Amino acid sequence: MISFEQFELIGDTKVGVLPQQVNQLEMCREIAAAKDLEENDSSFMLVDLDKIIERFELWKRELPMIEPFYAVKCNTDLVLIRILASLGCGFDCASREEIDIVMGTGVSADRLIYANPCKTRSFITHAMERDVRMMTFDNSEELLKIARLHPNAEMILRIAVSDPTATCPLNLKFGADPVLAGPQLLKLASEEGVSVVGISFHVGSGCNDASAYRNALQHAKNLCEIGEGLGFKMDIIDMGGGFPGAEHHNPFEKIAETIRDALDEFFPETEKRLIAEPGRFFAAGPFSLCANIIHATEVPATKITKDQKDCGDHGYMYYINDGVYGSFNCIMFDHAHPVGAPLFDVGRNEKYISTIWGPTCDSLDLVEDKKLMAKMEIGEWLYYPDMGAYTLAAGTTFNGFAKPIPMYVMSEELWGTIKDSSHISF
Ligand SMILES: Cc1ncc(COP(=O)(O)O)c(C=O)c1O
């Protein structure tokens, strides 16, 4: 396997240190070439830790007034969590296990928000025992559970304000109506003696229309005034997730500008604590997947497409060693359309209609369909960038196919920046 001159330990994970900035594609090529020499065809996930810092710096540049609480559900990789923790990031956890994962790295309870509006009762008790106080709710039954189980809880009312065009809208399941139910829930909280400290929303994962944030902030302002009228402090605004992870037609900078303008309009010179729960924003870009072609077979083009225009008479079906039951579960659960490319320049220019299947015996295990690609050979590699969000977190080993092996890399410069972090020790 590739020999790094220097390794560092983050937790108990070995991280390869490079003298220069990480180039993900080049690094993947080096690793794949080394694996080829050993006839090792297992898939791997390159994890570029410099990229995490880059994203964190981008956040701080565009939205310096908003504290990010990374949504752990997106990817529970411990090194990713430790790097974010070392930078001072907070964490959004949605279950007992996520709370324990994050606190197991040394993060203190006051840097967590338990952002699941419908919580398991024993998990609420667990949160109380670990002194996690900040948590969301959007219904009266949850308030009654909290009143009984967690007297120290600091509740944040989640309202439903949605970008209906988001890749994964969430408001069918969560969020109180900001006009009708919101004020009623604040009143009930006051009657039950439950402390409410703010308002939260999630406009939908993969937001396409930034005006949803403005809309939500306007509702948040009204509800803060109602809550203050009931005697609550209302000093937290939680703007949820929805921020893009990779290049997107609605870039992060545009969303950030809309949010800054809306904050100026509805919360000018506010002393409130502003937070958000970005998931894919941090997790997508640092992870690149390299999958090996374990089988390739020539087929008539009509087996792949009925529309034979420009397709020639034959095409190829490829079988790779990661699929929909593994990292590519994002195709099912996250409406993702991953696009792979040959890892190396294969030097063959002619393109054929191709299908890329995952390795299992299920025909639902389809990674890419009707793709034009150079002819590939068994044993060659495909490269999929931006594979860190909602991929490994829900992947299985169905049919006995292993998940890709993570390989962590960072530059010397990054290690210099984080190793003496005052927020966490490695
Ligand atoms: C409550 C909550 N916060 C944050 C997130 C993260 O969203 P995103 O990955 O779009 O940033 C999610 C995703 O489902 C969520 O449910």
UniProtKB/TrEMBL annotation:
GO CC entries: cytoplasm
InterPro entries on file: Ala_racemase/Decarboxylase_C, De-COase2_C, De-COase2_N, De-COase2_pyr-phos_BS, Orn/DAP/Arg_de-COase, Orn_de-COase, PLP-binding_barrel
Gene3D superfamilies: Alanine racemase, Lyase, Ornithine Decarboxylase, Chain A, domain 1
Residues forming the catalytic site: C361 (proton donor)
Record domain Orn/DAP/Arg decarboxylase 2 N-terminal: where: 49-284
Catalytic activity line of the entry: L-ornithine + H(+) = putrescine + CO2
Name of the top EC class for this enzyme: lyase
Enzyme nomenclature, EC number: 4.1.1.17
Function: Catalyzes the first and rate-limiting step of polyamine biosynthesis that converts ornithine into putrescine, which is the precursor for the polyamines, spermidine and spermine. Polyamines are essential for cell proliferation and are implicated in cellular processes, ranging from DNA replication to apoptosis.
Listed name of the protein: ornithine decarboxylase
Organism per entry: Caenorhabditis remanei (Caenorhabditis vulgaris)
